[in-house]
Amino acid sequence: MKRNKAIMSVIMSLLLIISIFCGCNDFDISNTTKPSETTTQTTAPEVTLSDEVKAEAEKTKEEVKSGEDIGTDEPIIAKPKDESTVVDESLIEQDAVIEQENISYDGTNTGKGKALLGACTGLTYYNQADSRWAKKPYTSSKNKTQTIKSSGCGPTSAAIVVSSSKGAILPATMAKLFVDNGYRTKSNGTAWSAWSFVADYFNFKKYATTSNIDKALNYLKTDKNKDGVSDYFIVASCNYGLFTTSGHYIVLVGYNGGTISVYDPYSYVGKFNTPSRSAAGAKLSGNTVFVSEKNFKKYGNTVNYWAFSNDYVKKTTKSKKSVTKYVATKSQSLNVRAKAHKSSKVLTQLKKGTKVTVTKVSGSWSYISSPAKGWVSTAYLSNTKVVADKPKKVTYKTTVGKHYRLKGKTYLYKKQSLTGIKYEYLPKTEIVVQKHISASVDKVKVVKTGRVAYAKINSYKVIKH
Length: 465
Fold this sequence. Notes:
It contains ten helices and 21 strands. By secondary structure, it is an alpha+beta fold. Strands 1-7-2-3-4-6-5 form a seven-stranded antiparallel sheet, with helices on both faces. The chain is elongated, with a radius of gyration of 30 Å. The N and C termini lie far apart (132 Å).
């Protein structure tokens, strides 16, 4: 009897150990409960929050408050002539190929990270090779080759998810937070356990992890707002394949008609045009990669997924009455977009000083009804009248309607840019100026043949009678 009890005790111990090491798949945090107040447990250490992280967070808050768009702008990383970007990609550390380290996080600091965040303005893209942070270190071993560009897809993906759902935070801030709290491994990038830290520390309403691609995509396919942005953002780890030549994290942000929208933190122009990747038919438009669900499954080589709820609620307030404002750009024109987002289609542009009518506001965007209809950045509107820049006065050295003779053997061009088809004329050919194109180019007509073309003003002179 005693022997049977001993055997049962050993079996139970083994089962407990197995359950601890096998608990990383299909674990849904949203379906778990926190320990009761009477439960005895060891107090987890406070999250390390350096002065650098606090300072960067405060700076980001101010930038967002002032209306600045903190995401990575287009064009994204351009493919250089020497192919160095592709070479860099092959040297990226193998992020997320395996669960690098078993670093636990018990939720003691749940929600405290929200104090670091600026206002949330919705879907935000970051690239780890963005010059603002590409060369900043992302290392736990003082290895100078470990930078955000070379191994920071983890904190960059985390910053995309948090900024898009909870509030603005930059990849550099997230990278420092990961390093300080042990989620940056020695040589394998970001530990998988960082994602449960992100879910709890920034207080996401729902969070789940799975190794089943269909379960992950089911989260992605929910879109209650019907705005093309999913109710969940999915972080996916990738092996060698469509998105990386080593190991990598990407973020799935939308699903529409069988097509997945991906924010790849290491996108660059030409990435998906190589012979080995072109078969997937992935298309890069702006900062978004579009790939069919079928080809994502076939070529993505993704191995694990973390689903974060999209908790951002766009606050749209209608004005009681329309408000008159003025375009207050420094010099360039102001883009009028179809939707309240910087990657939305540009409908038209308005010059500095243009009077506009604002009818509603959404976050950092204003909808105008005149002189055009669409969304503009509120940061570039003024309540007081703005004086438009006076156009530079152009002095023309020729006179419209006046006759001239070519100085020497001269070319006239079919295009006003003085390119394309050109016509050769002999000296003293008579022409008449029809229109000033610029201070140096005129539209002219050859008197004898009637041909209309374009010429440099220094190629002819006034006819002397």
